[in-house]
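A.,

Following up on our hallway conversation. Structure tokens first:
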């Protein structure tokens, strides 16, 4: 997550507060807000990101497995990371959110696009002109403005760069199952 200098501290504190209130658990925890990771390899992968974090990074909350069984990982907020750090450059696929403080819109755009992946992004602002400008310039397959994750069946969804192939949903999804052949015939000869 990229946050402007005017909100980064408050946003980080709010994220940490919400994360600390979140309950994680398996089917035996009916009040769980979300469940375990898929398998032990994924749990080890997420734990590895935290174990390898650089000294300049700070875990605000979470950062470890929870529970006696299963592959549950605490919701985690990490700050202080730099653009070239592993946790910024790789997709973690776990309940870990990083917060980077950007100085201006150009830096935010450069950092957002400065990764190998481009599945989805969201822009949160009261300035609709800025939101539309950023949405146009962000190199992501889906960009939401002041929301995150709603899907419509008539709209395509899929990433750019190293984030997937093709588009799911909508008519664009048929392209993956279609072979186009061009046949031209001259009937005069």
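Then the amino acids I'd put at each of the 189 positions:
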């Amino acid at each position: 997550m990229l946050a402007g200098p005017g909100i980064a501290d408050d946003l980080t504190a709010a994220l940490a507060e919400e994360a600390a209130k979140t309950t994680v658990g398996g089917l035996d925890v009916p009040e769980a807000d979300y469940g375990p990771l898929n398998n032990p390899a994924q749990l080890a992968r997420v734990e590895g990101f935290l174990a390898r974090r650089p000294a300049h990074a700070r875990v605000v909350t979470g950062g470890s497995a929870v529970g006696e069984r299963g592959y549950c990982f605490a919701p985690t907020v990490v700050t202080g990371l730099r653009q070239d750090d592993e946790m910024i450059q790789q997709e973690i696929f776990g309940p870990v959110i990083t917060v980077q403080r950007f100085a201006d819109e150009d830096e935010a755009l450069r950092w957002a696009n400065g990764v190998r992946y481009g599945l989805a992004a969201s822009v949160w602002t009261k300035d609709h002109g800025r939101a539309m400008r950023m949405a146009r310039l962000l190199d992501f397959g889906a960009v939401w403005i002041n929301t995150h994750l709603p899907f419509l069946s008539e709209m395509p969804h899929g990433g750019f760069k190293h984030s997937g192939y093709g588009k799911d949903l909508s008519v664009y999804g048929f392209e993956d199952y279609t072979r186009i052949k061009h046949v031209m015939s001259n009937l005069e000869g």
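Strands lie at 2-3, 58-61, 76-79, 96-101, 117-118, 120-123, 142-145, 160-161. Curious whether your intuition agrees with the design.

B.
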